[in-house]
Amino acid sequence: MVVAKKEHQRLVGTDGRAKMSKSLGNVISLVDSDETIVKMVKKMFTDPEKRGIDGPGRPEVNPVYIYLDAFDPNREGFETLREAYRAGGVSEVVGKERLTTVLIEMMKPIHERRKRYEEQPEVVDGFLKEGNEMARERANSVLKRVRKNIGLNYFD
């Protein structure tokens, strides 16, 4: 399981805007196919001040490196890449390829689990029925206490 670091609990959009928004189309969703992930990462915003491969980059403003910082499980490899990008000599493509690999690997178990449940709708129905019953019991208990406390327990 991957858990984003505290400073990455709200990620910038793939276009570099302040936040992800489905309506802005700057989101990589947990249910996106590998092909969609590749497409979204390829068109991600990068550091506009980086000039060519040899130019130094600013990973702290580049969404590719922000996402890698949040999700790349290979911390040492990520930090080496980030510092090389900061110093110059690393193209945007290298970071995007790494991010694509990281995201696809991270989402693989999610996609597999979703596929399993799509193939077994009766299991999902069972979960929903169980949850519905638990919610009903809890709501009835709360309503009973509310009625008692406000004096509306006519039937008890």
Describe this structure as you would to a colleague.
With 156 residues, the protein is mostly helical. Helices cover 57% and strands 0% of the residues. The protein has helices at residues 34-42, 63-71, 75-87, 92-119, 121-150. Helix 1 (34-42) runs antiparallel to helix 4 and helix 2 (63-71) crosses helix 4. The termini are far apart.
The helix content, as a percent range, equals 55-70%
**How many strands, which pairing sense, and closed or not: the largest β-sheet?**
none
The count of helical stretches stands at 5
The secondary-structure class comes to mainly alpha
CATH topology of the largest domain, which one?
Tyrosyl-Transfer RNA Synthetase
**Strands, count:** 0
Q: Name the beta content range.
A: under 5%
Distance separating the two termini: 49 Å
Number of domains: 2
Q: In terms of per-residue confidence, which ranges show pLDDT below 50 for 5 or more consecutive residues?
A: none
Q: Topology as H/E string? A: HHHHH
CATH class descriptor of the largest domain = Mainly Alpha
Gyration radius over CA: 23 Å
Rounded mean pLDDT is: 90
